[in-house]
Amino acid sequence: MDFGYTEKVSALQEKLLTFMDDHVLPANAEWVRITGQGEYPMALIDDLKGKARAQGLWNLFLPGLKADEPGVQLANLEYAPLAEIMGRLSWASEIFNCNAPDTGNMELLHLFGTPEQKAAWLTPLLEGQVRSCFGMTEPDVASSDATNISTSIRRDGDHYLINGRKWFTTGAIHPNCKLCIVMGVTDSDPEANAHSRHSMVLVPMDTPGFSIVRNVPIMNHHAPEGHCEVIFRNVRVPVSNLLGTEGKGFALAQARLGPGRVHHCMRTIGQCELALEMMCERALGRVAFGKHLSDFANVQDWIAQSRVEIDQARLLVLRAAWLMDQKGNAAARVDVSAIKLVAAQLQTKVVDRAIQVFGAMGLTPDTPLPDLWTWGRAMRFFDGPDEVHLRTIARQELSVVRKNLGRTALYYNLPTR
Amino acid sequence: MDFGYTEKVSALQEKLLTFMDDHVLPANAEWVRITGQGEYPMALIDDLKGKARAQGLWNLFLPGLKADEPGVQLANLEYAPLAEIMGRLSWASEIFNCNAPDTGNMELLHLFGTPEQKAAWLTPLLEGQVRSCFGMTEPDVASSDATNISTSIRRDGDHYLINGRKWFTTGAIHPNCKLCIVMGVTDSDPEANAHSRHSMVLVPMDTPGFSIVRNVPIMNHHAPEGHCEVIFRNVRVPVSNLLGTEGKGFALAQARLGPGRVHHCMRTIGQCELALEMMCERALGRVAFGKHLSDFANVQDWIAQSRVEIDQARLLVLRAAWLMDQKGNAAARVDVSAIKLVAAQLQTKVVDRAIQVFGAMGLTPDTPLPDLWTWGRAMRFFDGPDEVHLRTIARQELSVVRKNLGRTALYYNLPTR
Amino acid sequence: MDFGYTEKVSALQEKLLTFMDDHVLPANAEWVRITGQGEYPMALIDDLKGKARAQGLWNLFLPGLKADEPGVQLANLEYAPLAEIMGRLSWASEIFNCNAPDTGNMELLHLFGTPEQKAAWLTPLLEGQVRSCFGMTEPDVASSDATNISTSIRRDGDHYLINGRKWFTTGAIHPNCKLCIVMGVTDSDPEANAHSRHSMVLVPMDTPGFSIVRNVPIMNHHAPEGHCEVIFRNVRVPVSNLLGTEGKGFALAQARLGPGRVHHCMRTIGQCELALEMMCERALGRVAFGKHLSDFANVQDWIAQSRVEIDQARLLVLRAAWLMDQKGNAAARVDVSAIKLVAAQLQTKVVDRAIQVFGAMGLTPDTPLPDLWTWGRAMRFFDGPDEVHLRTIARQELSVVRKNLGRTALYYNLPTR
Amino acid sequence: MDFGYTEKVSALQEKLLTFMDDHVLPANAEWVRITGQGEYPMALIDDLKGKARAQGLWNLFLPGLKADEPGVQLANLEYAPLAEIMGRLSWASEIFNCNAPDTGNMELLHLFGTPEQKAAWLTPLLEGQVRSCFGMTEPDVASSDATNISTSIRRDGDHYLINGRKWFTTGAIHPNCKLCIVMGVTDSDPEANAHSRHSMVLVPMDTPGFSIVRNVPIMNHHAPEGHCEVIFRNVRVPVSNLLGTEGKGFALAQARLGPGRVHHCMRTIGQCELALEMMCERALGRVAFGKHLSDFANVQDWIAQSRVEIDQARLLVLRAAWLMDQKGNAAARVDVSAIKLVAAQLQTKVVDRAIQVFGAMGLTPDTPLPDLWTWGRAMRFFDGPDEVHLRTIARQELSVVRKNLGRTALYYNLPTR
Hints:
The structure is a homotetramer.
Chain A: H1 7-24, H2 28-36, H3 42-54, H4 76-87, H5 102-112, H6 115-126, E1 131-135, E2 152-156, E3 159-170, E4 177-185, E5 198-204, E6 210-215, E7 227-238, E8 242-243, H7 249-285, E9 287-288, E10 291-292, H8 297-327, H9 333-358, H10 369-379, H11 386-402
Parallel strand pairs in A: 1-4
Antiparallel strand pairs in A: 2-3, 3-7, 4-5, 5-8, 6-7, 9-10
Helix pairs in contact in A: 1-4, 4-7, 4-8, 5-6, 5-7, 7-8, 7-9, 8-9, 9-10, 9-11
């Protein structure tokens, strides 16, 4: 057991922090200005992407690629502390080609894509030339139970015919977004159980019948790249666009979600660290009733609770990343549920405290706090609502205990009857 | 002791509910459409105001007016359950001329205005011809401690010269807004203690030097009437625009806040009832893992907790209203702090649960939930942050116990030493 | 609506407080000393009972008795504030013949007893000559679902034959305890539904086969009067000992629980007030890091939160009492669940804070805090665990909404599709 | 970074678990029986100690001893998972000579004792021949601020004269307890600051003037070895009994507390694991309203929350142990505060949930739950109350931010003014 970062990781952290300080943060005001006008700052982004790639800070997220593919080869445990650094700024991950949902989509294509699919989509994604989105959540059913997903993917000769409605399809209005991976019901095997009826299909976004309805604001926040509501109306793609095997959609989804959730969670840790640091700065700088806010015991309690909660959450995430590296994504399924649950609730808690220390300013877009809070609240749904993760963890715990029933018997002090 | 509404109140509740159902709610979609385009739906509002006034549903909030002034004469305890009904819809109060901050401003003018001030401002406000705003919170200091307020109101001959910056000035961009009541430091008496240095002055909004910087979004929500940042730059008004006495700004603020906070709190209760009702409807209608959400014990717990928390909060608010009616606003000062604290925290709790039951839809503007949550979070600052109210309540409690020290002595079981 | 106590109630409060100060509290040290030796201080109790009865402070709890029965006739709403006063001291209620479980048992006998049963048991109970206990909870099943109760009450000619095991039978080792009312399965009608299979029977405690196994400590606290585990082994009583009708045990239990729960809850309010007062006294008297504890913002927060939570809980309890007086116990069923839930959780919260302010002394029997906490934790089970009450409240809420489905429709802002 | 236990640790875990199953747990009923009679089961304990030592499971806690001293040499990180196993049973640590407060006392003697002191006390302690206690907390002052400690240790020629009162002196009534290490004010240097006025002195418990007043129950729990109130009345010991240097009492206390707190926390983790396992077993075995408790979503939530909270707390404790091993106890001071805070609150939370799943049985001594809860509540004071640790953590956090003020500036989106 060892709780220190390796030298390799420490060096990458240092390099990434320096890049953020030297190049990304100084561009933030401009990014805010342009997106505030409803535009996507492609020139700014492309410039920074070029610089990052030149420094080798590129595709840091993807373990197990062939050596001749672009980017650094890192384990999940090595990537996690870097995701934390990028996470502090909402738009930084794209600079390093490490942004969701493309990272997950690249992993899917890497693991399950045919050579043709890889050539068409994985390579340009790895090069950062295009972006992609992922159509999962649906407005009309409780997606907490993913078997409710009902978009129809019907075989019609050499094609699939896709009909359905998705929302919270992140990235769909990004100017470079060209591909949507969609999850739906194929139902070729009418006897299949509820977890073997779904498949994933690659849909180029210029396919007729695919349309973006709107960029759905999340708690009134309009993401520049969009969390979109999209419609598939008689969308027709060749059967060669099937990703993996028919009926294996859930298996693919699971494969996709493990590392993606670790990334999400580590970005959250970074955001919570930022919120805590801002909270401390504000508390040190404001005076009420003759004292600095930092001298009030309740403010101190919030700071200390945030510190211990963040530290614990980070450790849990890192252990999950380590477990994935050691035993594979499947073995870490429950651990990944745990970190998703913990991280999302952490963000709402810590940012809420920061807002309270800021006073009314914390409600305003002058600070990143509303967006951090917004995102934290939304995270309690993304990749499954809290309740699904709680259920997963509890069922695992109960199943372990069920196999050892009676093990606590000698701890009781029962009177003789 | 009697927990039933009087017949008079029950009849008014019935009448108001009917009016809401018949006239206001059917107009909501249109209101949403127009404000969504960045416009203020004056025609729609004016039409409904006419209908409401014709039915006598007008100025329900203002106790103690002379009989010849327009509107119904109600005690705080009578008005509270009506505010609850109006509160369910963000824009409904204006229809009945019962909206903040005008209600508080009308009370101020009613209590402290000169005959000329009343003629110029109170009458048109009571008639619903103009609207007004209130400049209190400042961006540059911790307004939690109101003695930090630093806008300068300097006597200059027969005029006051006002310089400063305010934000969260609600209503300032409403098309009919004509008056801003501003709080600042007059400092005519350099020996005065920190609570006797501030005054309130009436500033017509067309006075040169007064300008609106922006409508500050609250958690990314842009209120149609605005929570504005405004600047006073060498704003010059005659000394006759002083409201009440120089140096009595805090006393006026206290007088203003009592009933206003009761209104706020009762509107919150209404919003929480709406959120609870929506939560139940959603839980009854959605299925996950083979069961309706309403059959899951954790969802049931949220519903039940919301019910008992709302009921308790309502009783506390009604008791504070009753106390104000019985003993005056000053006697209820700590009780008003208590309801403000309780109501704001209630709203974030109940609405958060509703959002969780809704799933991702609860994050979207398709439901009122984001705005309800936004407003609840902001309420934890409006009229003073939670921490100020907690402090007020604690100090009162401690001062009572201090006077009776030792009263618990006989409850101890101390061993003899 | 009126939140003031009537003159009648205020006078009784004053009288009871004076009696507590003059007679009961001065005897507390002696009561602690005697019970600390494992004895029950009957002489001390009897002396105080005589004094209380002489002042008319007797049987304050029982509404609706005939005028010629001993004691004052009070409504639930009138009794509640008196129960609060008695509740501050664990053993005070007995002085006024207002202690559980006898109050509930007297109500049962009053409502459902035959003239013979009343003569044999109600009269001596009202006179305070004997005490009684109530056998409900069973160790071997989840009593949260009361239909699980399985003690057998089998008809055998003119007798019932009772077999089973109960625990948390309060008062069974009180020196004057002579009667146990036991709940069990009669099952005369094999077709009866789960809620019509149980009955209540009066069992004199000297009946052969009835035995007390032990006084079960609650969180290591041994109540002097006992929360006992008792056994019925072929206990034989005449059929005339049936209380009410066969198969109506649940209906009787419901009738019994309403006022009893109000009493419990008001006693809890009294205990929470005591804990809050002790917390304030301690905070005012202790110094750490150069300040009185009462000057630390976190301690102030605890005090203020306790105040607002107590006030809200009291109002909810009083409203439930009022509702029972106005509409009957049955109409207040859900309200009674709500107060039981709220009061039990309140006590653990407030006392926990008091303990924290006390420091390690709060863990010791030198203060009443451990027993207050113990009792609060146990209350979360007595009269049904929290989860049963949450379920009851949620189902009621859902059933109301189910009848009005769609009522929130116009509050949505759904986009046109 | 590596989250796996080493082979050495895994082997020790296995060995210790086997010993617990084979020898300790089978003796628990007898231990409960004997201590229930108010006696200390020395024969039982001694027999098990002999067996444990024969297997080399002895003095596992003490890092850095000379090779010729008895016991295994383990780092904190290696010992922690073993403390977790012992912690599941309140009395198990003594079997392995790993019990508080002797472990801390042995560390003190090991680090600061003179050769004579070591010969007299450390050797017999390491051999398990005697036990010792530690006099720190005082009843008359707020010990949360340790500078309040006021027991007087006055130089009188070649002796110290000690006067004062301590409580929560653990172990003082253990039959083998022979030594009390007492902390008090020496005040030889009247100019010394508040943290340089205290010293520690070794007091053989048969010294005249030392007496045990009582075994103070903690939340009504009487520990068999005692948490005692003790008096020093003109206790006279030679100056050679001074431990370390005069005025360095706080420095010694800090040295003592680091590893001791890690042990406490890991034992807590073990107790929480036990409570969680019992909760799951109970939930799987009980039926209410037609379902097993384990199928209710709220019970599942408690189980899952307990799991993620325990896992996070364990990681935090292990990291603190690792840090102590890497950088020394002083460097880990704030980390140790963090684990103490987290562990104590964890125990009350997890055990409270277990009690709730158990129903009323969870209140009884038939289960270990009341004692586990009791201990958890008390832990919120032992080694400093929560508030002191929160303060320590916050001040550290603030001091780091203070050195880097402005680092968050570029994350703001401030409008130009």
